[in-house]
Amino acid sequence: MDARIRVTTAVAITLAVTGCATSPPPTPPTPSINRPTTGTGPTGVAAPVPPPTQPGFSYADPGQVCRRFVTALYSADTRRDTGPADAYQRAMRFASSTLAGQSAAADRDGRWATWAHHRVHLTAEVEPFADLPQPADNGITARRAIRVTVTPLGEGGWRGWTEHSIIDCALIRGGPDGPGWRVAGYEIRQAGLR
């Protein structure tokens, strides 16, 4: 075997074993909304349970659903909340059953201990954001983007870094979640700190 081929092969194997391969990571499987199968074999994934709802909210406008989702996701109060996952749970009132059924990494936010020490509250300022034309809504899907600005404010004048983010919401209507719009997925783009 030629020396260049051996070195290239060894580097490729090392990268693959250490998780540093240059190929994109595998796509995670899409959650199924099928009911469990019956019989003696393995069972399918259970149908998602409808997510909680916000009393008095109609879910008729995809822009308002995305706005409420983002506001809830970025609003917290360490004096009242038990941890960072509380905000995520409030946001699930505006999410699809599939999204609501996924586990959140929000309960592992490393900033929480510092915020709790300073008795911080976060209030999100949100506004629609349009950097690129969004695809047209249809009867089932819609996309919206929201700019969110959040500053942790604590007791005694303590102030954390202001965070600016853009949240892209993918919304769906109908199915197991009912006739209104729900956030089926979202992507966070950091827009900077100040």
List keywords for this structure.
5 helices, three-stranded antiparallel sheet, four-stranded antiparallel sheet, 7 strands, alpha+beta, globular, 194 residues, disordered N terminus, single chain, 23% helix
What is the fold's blueprint, element by element?
Blueprint: H1 3-18, H2 62-73, E1 76-77, H3 85-91, H4 97-100, H5 112-117, E2 121-122, E3 125-128, E4 141-150, E5 152-153, E6 163-173, E7 181-193
Antiparallel strand pairs: 1-2, 2-5, 3-4, 4-6, 6-7
Helix pairs in contact: 2-3
Task: Outline the structure in words.
- By secondary structure, the protein is an alpha+beta fold.
- Helices cover 23% and strands 23% of the residues.
- The protein has a four-stranded antiparallel sheet. A three-stranded antiparallel sheet has the order 1-2-5, with no helix packed on it.
- A hairpin with a 7-residue loop joins strand 6 (163-173) and strand 7 (181-193).
- Helix 2 packs antiparallel against helix 3.
- The radius of gyration is 21 Å and the shape is globular.
